[in-house]
Amino acid sequence: MSGAELQARLLHRLAAMPFLDRLELAAVTGASERAAYYAMAALEDAGLAAALPHASNIIRPTRRFYVTARGLRRLAADEGVPTDVLLRTHPVSAQWRRILLDRLDAVAVIYRLAAAVAAERGSLEGFGWFRAAALDAVLILPGGRSIGIVRQGPTADRTAFSKRLRRLYEGRLPGALLVLASDGSRLQHARRLLNGFPIPTSLALERDAASAAAHGQVWHTPSGEAAFSLRTALSKAKPGNALPAERQRLRASTPADLPPGGIVTSAPDHLLPARLRPAEKRVLDLLAAWPWLTPAHLGELLGVRPPRLSHVMGRLQALGLTVSLAAGGRRRFSLADRGLALLARRDRVSVGNVRRRWSAAPVDPRAPFTWRNVSGARSRQLLRNIEHTEAVHGFAAALAAQARSTGCQVAQLDPPHRASRFFRHRGRLHSVRPDAFGILRGDGRPLPFFLEWERRAVRPVTMAARLAPYLRYFASARPVEDHGAPPVLLVVFEDELAAVHFLRVARRETARTGVRIPLWVSHTGLLEREGPLGRAWLTHGGWEPRRAFPVH
Predict the structure, then answer these.
(1) Does 62 share its domain with 37?
(2) Could you give the dihedral angle defined by the CA atoms of residues 523, 450, 436 and 151, in that order, rounded to the nearest 10 degrees?
């Protein structure tokens, strides 16, 4: 293939898959990396393609390419169609470009998966993005089989994602389905929802799917326990390429070329995913999970010193993505409405719903700032109970800091709204709603835990009531099904007397029900002195503080 032919081929592929980087372009076209590098340099020099920098918490810094307005005119001439026809048949219009830039972090993960599929199969025959369908994208393999891709982002709640998956049944189905989840809890939730799905379905964590090659054992079926490779997942695809159909947009305008890199406070929303740095994106994800963090707790969760934190937060506040407000006698950070919208669009969730739940904007801008004057329902609830909120934040921050010093890894740390578990017990639906859920990794194995920070359960009756949901949960098979290993239950009280009393109540209740709970209890004084990973926990059968986790 001549250089001119390769350039034309790469330009055509970029029109179908905007914002590929050079390595992904080489994989999906079957070209060598060296040839793709020189061909893209020639297209840039000719003004037919341009690039913008991009990096995320999963994808390392790279340059992502798109077809310029001049390149679109060249493509239209090469294909013998008017430019407006090209804009309606390819995702290159101004409207499509805005959609893909809004989702750029998710787009990058899906492109890495597409590149791995293409490397396994030699190339891709086709690729398609969806605006509103339940699928995010579809891959067409050589031979015509189709693979649908669905991604569940960290801001997508259970109910909305369940409805999205149910919409898959409403249209035509591809030959197989690949599902990407942002963390282990969402992965297990998606596995239960897709159990019995009528086409072969494989699920993986998006971080693993973006970094593993075709032979990496990171994929799972909805019902099986054994992990398998992408190569195996692709081999399960059924023949045929029935795909959901989306109506073409009547309005498809030619996009203007994007400005060069360099973040400015006036950057439009859809350019922010390309302009923000990975550390800044990590801050946004942390504040989405844990609103109203103090600077000290945010710094410990990030593992950065105050000067670095001040620099990052200054940039985010200048962009209007975060706010800093005084509550409970301390300065606290939360996402601004612009930051909430940025993450919602990335994860394909309703911006309006996210703001109704988590907005920190005042109901009345002229009134004093109090919890009653916060418009987001869940954000308002956290502020109303700010002492409890800060205590849970302090535990999470201390755990992250101590884990770094001991060589232990915090693989997952979920806030209350992501930590709930729903299950059936004796024919009825029940739930446990902890204050946090996490997974540590020590000695190569997962160590999951629930956290309950108690301030109100001070009487035997209320203590037993707090324990009852966990007795039902551990009486089922769900703890191991959900997490791969039985999680421990950590309960923290304000004083030592309440902690000891709770252990007595727990001993009585477990004896009465015959249900064994891996329970560890502590109090604030002991926990502040020893830290979450230290000898700060009491358990059945002894009153000497011990370690709840076997890490050193």
Answers:
(1) yes
(2) 170
